[in-house]
């Protein structure tokens, strides 16, 4: 066997070893992320007065937008789950029952800065909800029955709100349901939903490995509105 062939095989071997190492690290990250989200030690904690000036300015900017669009401020929370980045979650709600969630992260987690969701709950038992997100990770994980979503990474808040409202009208027409404003603590509700979503993901066979596939395929449903993605939606799809 020539020296060139041996060298070539050695390089291929090194590349394969590197790819295997990266894959293992990613699987471990997926595992720690979701086990942290499912941990009873994690949750949303109301923020008192420990925000820096940049965070306060960002929140004030979004509060101006929220007030101009009929939303009332609910609260700000620290999202603290083991093995997950610490994130500031700011919540507003409008009279129609749609929640506006804005996320801020510390400088070392710039990938999640300035993302937001609009969420409308249509049943008290959480059977049906619609979430519209402008995060790149929106729609990445498998959703439970009745949890509908659409993701438009990079679009601004005004456009996202418009698409959420159009999607909400579609869901209301198809299912005959209207949004509901919840009475319980919003932080507790979000914590419960995060726990439920994480446990649902972890119920899938080989979920840490499949998490890599979900991440790679996350863009499959990006920029597809609910009226196209769920074009044949009917009430029997979310019952049972």
Proportion in β-strands? 15-25%
Largest sheet: 7 strands, mixed
- Tally of helical segments: 6
The Rg value, from CA coordinates, equals 21 Å
The stretches of 5 or more residues where confidence is low (pLDDT under 50) are none
In total, the number of strands is 7
Q: How far apart are the termini?
A: 64 Å
Order of helices and strands: HEHEEEEEEHHHH
Global morphology: globular
Strand order of the largest sheet: 1-2-3-4-5-6-7
How do the helices and strands line up, and which of them pair or pack?
Elements: H1 3-38, E1 43-46, H2 53-68, E2 72-80, E3 87-93, E4 98-105, E5 115-121, E6 129-133, E7 147-151, H3 157-175, H4 186-202, H5 207-216, H6 226-229
Parallel strand pairs: 6-7
Antiparallel strand pairs: 1-2, 2-3, 3-4, 4-5, 5-6
Task: Explain what the structure shows.
The protein is an alpha+beta fold. It has a domain at 3-42 and 113-235. Helix content is 42%, strand content 19%. It has six helices and seven strands. Helix 1 (3-38) packs across helix 4 and helix 1 (3-38) crosses helix 5. The radius of gyration is 21 Å and the shape is globular.
Q: What labels describe this entry?
A:
single chain, 240 residues, alpha+beta, seven-stranded mixed sheet, 6 helices, 19% strand, globular
Characterize this entry briefly.
This protein has 240 residues and is of the alpha+beta class. It is built from 6 helices and 7 strands. It has a domain at 3-42 and 113-235.
